[in-house]
Design goal:
One of its GO terms (cellular component) is cytoplasm. Its EC number is 6.3.4.19. Keywords: ATP-binding, Cytoplasm, Ligase, Nucleotide-binding, tRNA processing. GO terms for molecular function: ATP binding; tRNA(Ile)-lysidine synthase activity. It is an enzyme of class 6 (ligase). With about 450 residues, the chain is an alpha+beta fold. The protein has 13 helices and 22 strands. The strands form five sheets. A six-stranded mixed β-sheet has the order 3-2-1-4-6-5, sandwiched between helices. The chain has a five-stranded antiparallel β-sheet with strand order 7-8-11-10-9. A five-stranded antiparallel β-sheet has the order 12-16-19-20-21, with no helix packed on it. Strand 10 and strand 11 form a beta hairpin. Helix 4 crosses helix 5 and helix 10 crosses helix 11. The chain starts with a helix and ends with a strand.
């Protein structure tokens, strides 16, 4: 079966689109998206091409844009282009490059599909991308749901190349003389995905040359298993979860004792409310200790242990969102952001001047557990570079921070002292000095 035949078959079997749909193709200029453009056109679908220029690779980014525009013109399909001020957006929000670019592009795809009447948005992820995602999530401990790879369809978003391997796509491009550009960042091993793509997977293929097809079957089985679990969890939810005045109560005594309780709790809290695995692990340990009143936070919800039950509610505007950060904790959640903690030796620190969304702190000056919470009136600290104390409220006013941002402002404390006005300024008492040996490096990312 040719790639074009397999492509049409995959679309039909998964009911992704019909020839009556208008499909917005997201085309970067890389081989995957350029092949996707060719396949859709050759199969006679009505398509338009959307290209994002994130302006992060200088002339490379502009050359990508030119190539995609020329190919769209050659095929006679509409071309849409947007140049994003990605670096400025990263500076403004404190997001990583990947997160900022993802948020910007998906918001634009949604806006474009609505304004131009596209019924589907096609992304050129393929089978190898899905396999890489499996390993990324395996290393991050996301649970079974994260091991199912990339979804074929989520709302308007479709991924019609998930049946194809990278090798098959490259062979099609060569046979059909399809031009494409290679992103130089794909060769950088500073990214986890590239470490897996360039380091781990080639070694596994040495052991089993049929690794890709084997993993595709494994991902399909894992997806089926997750669908089965989802059905079972919904039945448990009907029996064990009640709702009153906006608060969901998980009655643990209504869960069949024959079921693995921690797994059921994970599925209930993760799928419906967005709680992460390490937070749920801490909650389950607190349950075993009978810690009534302990609170645990996701991005938008708080879970409270209450006499063997779990109460889940939206986070109230006046909630302090106070959590304890133990030594060695990999991350913690605060409002719409996550903090990643990395412990390292001073000799590994290459840059002492870092952006505001990163804090580098003398770890030996800290008293654990640390406390993370929203700022309060009366809070003060000694901003880095200053010798006198300053109220947090005055600092935020001087920085012209908007009211919504003030409401989302968190502080990290060691004992009763503010270590970091999160995302803005560390306390001068915890700065790195010539005597520093161990460093706690904290990165804030918007989620």
């Amino acid at each position: 079966m040719t790639l074009i035949e397999a492509f049409q078959r995959y679309i039909d079997e998964n009911n992704l689109v019909t020839h009556d749909d208008r499909i917005l193709l997201t085309v970067s200029g890389g081989v995957d998206s350029m092949v996707m453009l060719s396949l859709f056109v050759r199969c006679g679908y009505s398509v338009g091409v959307a290209h994002c220029n994130f302006q992060l690779r200088g002339a490379e980014s502009d050359e990508d844009e030119v190539l995609v525009q020329e190919e769209a013109a050659r095929y006679g399909v509409p071309f849409y282009n947007r140049r994003f001020e990605t670096a400025a957006e990263m500076e403004r929000t404190g997001e990583s490059m990947e997160m900022a670019a993802r948020r910007l592009r998906y918001a634009w795809f949604d806006e474009l599909s609505r304004s131009e009447g596209y019924t589907a948005v096609a992304i050129a992820h393929h089978a190898d991308d899905s396999i890489e995602t499996f390993f990324i999530n395996l290393l991050r401990g996301t649970g079974l749901r994260g091991l199912t790879g990339i979804s074929t369809q989520v709302g308007k978003i479709i991924r019609p190349l998930l049946f194809a391997s990278r090798r098959e796509i490259l062979e099609y491009a060569a046979a059909n003389h399809i031009p494409y550009r290679e992103d130089s960042s794909n060769r950088s091993t500073k990214y986890l995905r590239n470490k897996i793509r360039l380091g781990l997977i080639p070694r596994i293929r040495e052991i089993n040359p049929k690794f890709t097809s084997l993993m595709c079957r494994n991902l399909a089985r894992l997806t089926d298993a997750q669908l089965f679990i989802n059905h079972g969890i919904e039945r448990i939810r009907e029996l064990a979860v009640t709702t009153q005045e906006g608060i969901d109560t998980i009655h643990l005594d209504r869960i069949d004792p024959a079921f693995p309780r921690e797994f059921v709790i994970y599925e209930l809290l993760n799928s419906s409310y967005g709680f992460k695995g390490d937070v749920i692990d801490s909650l389950c340990r607190a349950l075993e200790q009978g810690a009534t009143g302990r609170r645990f936070y996701a991005r938008d919800h708080v879970a409270t242990i209450d006499r063997g039950r779990i109460l889940v509610a939206p986070i109230a505007p006046d909630d302090d969102c106070l959590v304890k950060v133990e030594r060695g904790a990999p991350r913690s959640y605060c409002g719409n952001a996550v903090l990643y903690f990395e412990y390292c030796d001073i000799d590994t620190i290459k840059n002492f001047g870092v952006p505001e969304h990163i804090a580098q702190i003398d770890a030996d000056r800290l008293q654990f557990p640390l406390t993370l919470r929203r700022w309060r009136e009366g809070d003060w600290f000694i901003p880095f570079g200053m010798t006198g104390r300053k109220k947090v409220s005055d600092f935020l006013i001087d920085a012209k921070v908007s009211l919504p941002e003030k409401q989302r402002q968190f502080v990290l404390l060691s004992g009763d002292e503010i270590v970091w006005l999160v995302g803005r300024r560390i306390d001068d008492r915890y700065r790195l000095t010539s005597e520093t040996e161990n460093v706690l490096r904290i990165t804030k990312e918007i989620v």
